[in-house]
Amino acid sequence: CSNVCCVFFFLIFIVDSAPFHLGILLTTGNRWKVMRCFSVMTLQDFGMGKRSIEDRIQEEARCLVQELRKTNSLPCDPTFLLGCAPCNVICSVIFHNRFDYKDQHFLYFMGKFNENVKILSSPWIQICNNFPVLIDYFPGSHKKLLKNIADVKQYVLEKVQEHQESLDMDNPRDFIDCFLIKMNKEKGNQQTEFTTEALINIVTDLFGAGTETTSTTLRYGLLLLLKHPEVTAKVQEEIDQVIGRHRKAVLHEIQRYIDLIPINLPRAVTCDIKFRNYLIPKVRLFCPHCPSVLLKFLYSQYGFNLQPK
Q1: DSSP states of 92-141 as a string?
Q2: What is the pLDDT of residue 194?
Q3: Distances (CA, A) of 297 to 253, 292, 293, 303, 305
Q4: What is 3-227's CATH superfamily?
Q5: CA angle 53, 59, 63 (to 5 degrees)
Q6: Residue 53's pLDDT band (boundaries 50, 70, 90)?
Q7: Of 271, 269, 270, 266, which is closest to residue 286 (Cα–Cα)?
Q8: Where are the domains of the chain?
Q9: Is 104 exposed, middle or buried (CB count within 10 Å of its CB: 0-12, 13-18, 19+)?
């Protein structure tokens, strides 16, 4: 399993630790609907899922290739660089700015995320997840985890404050500007969900959900394409013929093959549901187990082979 399986442990750990939930990942009900609707619409305005974001992705791809060329074809671990690239694309939408890979603020930001991934992958966090009472009474890496989360949120808060000082209500530059404009419009609403705390949590959610999943797919994608030259040849042929469908099939198959998120995000049902002789009670938290769906049937047919179709 990849490090992305730690997403589940991260969520449960924070659910047990946080006094209240903001953002997108850990919210429910009306708050989740409002925050998700605003986030999706705003991200689409800045190009998500559209051709307009391709320029940012292509710019970042060029920067990534330049950094890889600096290795002079010597063996290297590309993990850090492959994490920087998707993080910078998100930065361009959230902060209206991409960072040089040597920028100290960027390195600090990435360092906190990378350290948390390592902590969340440790057996100790999984033990805390099963026995949350340990969190309050035992020392351990979970203390460092919470400190890193607080440091990341403090960094995001500083960025929000910078945006507030230069905000143009008629010319939003990025996601943060759009959120701040919405906050100003709802100043008189006592029930508003648009607060500074909510903005900080949403930005943290977007980075946490987007950076590790994308970088892990890229990392294993390189590894699997090296292992399966026949698939690489098909992808290259398609690129040469002006990009067709096989490229997309390869990306989806890589994510299935590496079991990118073995245990999915927590879900809850609004009424009792009976499914294949299993009863899922109303508002009972459960987590879909992806390997049973993605791997068991296909492995029985194809074994451990990459099968993009």
Answers
A1: HHHTS----TT-HHHHHHHHHHHHHHHHHTSHHHHHHHH-TTHHHH--SH
A2: 93
A3: 14, 8, 7, 10, 13
A4: Cytochrome P450 (1.10.630.10)
A5: 145
A6: confident
A7: 266
A8: 3-227
A9: exposed
Q: Which two tokens stand for residue 308?
A: 């993009």
140 backbone dihedrals φ, ψ, rounded to 5°: 160, -175
Among candidates 67, 9, 64, 4, which has minimal Cα distance to 259?
4
pLDDT band at residue 304 under the 50/70/90 scheme: low
Of the candidates 214, 174, 222, the one whose C-alpha atom is nearest the C-alpha of residue 47 is 174
Tokens of 225: 């394409």
Dihedral pair phi/psi, residue 273, rounded to 5°: -130, 130
- The helix (H) or strand (E) run that includes residue 300 is helix 296-302
Closest listed residue to residue 159, CA positions, set 110, 109, 194, 113: 109
Q: Tell me: the pLDDT tens digits for 109-121? A: 888 888 887 887 7
- Decide: helix, strand or coil at residue 166: coil
- Extract the tokens encoding 294: 């993605």
Instruction: Provide the CA 64 distance to its chain's centre, in angstroms.
Output: 19
Q: CB within 8 A of 270, min separation 6: which ones?
A: 282, 283
More confidently predicted of 152 and 252: 152
Question: Do the Cβ atoms of 37 and 43 come closer than 8 Å?
Answer: no
> Is the pLDDT score of 148 beyond 50?
yes
The mean pLDDT of 77-87, rounded to a whole number, is 88
Contacts of 9 (CB under 8 A, 6+ apart): 120, 125, 126, 129
Q: How many angstroms separate the first and last alpha carbons of the chain? A: 23
